[in-house]
What we know:
Strand 5 (46-52) and strand 6 form a beta hairpin. The termini are far apart. The strands form two sheets. Strands 2, 4, 5, 6, 9, 10 and 11 form a seven-stranded mixed β-sheet that branches. The chain has no helices and eleven strands. The chain is mostly beta strands. The protein is globular, with a radius of gyration of 14 Å.
Amino acid sequence: QVQLVESGGGLVQAGGSLRLxxxxxxxxxxxxxxxxxxQASGKQxxxxxxxxxxxxxxxxxxxxxxxxxxxxxxxxxxTVYLQMNSLKPxxxxxxxxxxxxxxxxxxxxxxxxxxSS
Length: 117
């Protein structure tokens, strides 16, 4: 099992920045990809950014150039960060951390990001 604990959401004005963190613990050795998804009210959950075990990153077109995903690993914990700059009201959503291990997806509890105009 993999446990994911998120932090860093909140309320920010348009143009501002936030950094989300997600700490993965438990059976982390076979995690192949970690990433962030978001779900705005009334919309489907969508991929925001992901990073592979080898460090390859992938971003949604809507956040490219504004968001940066990175990770830190040690023997007991993987932590993935999402630095969000130049935030827009349309970035408002619940952001979920995701970890993929073989064919299983693990999800965090979600953290609210609200961008005011």
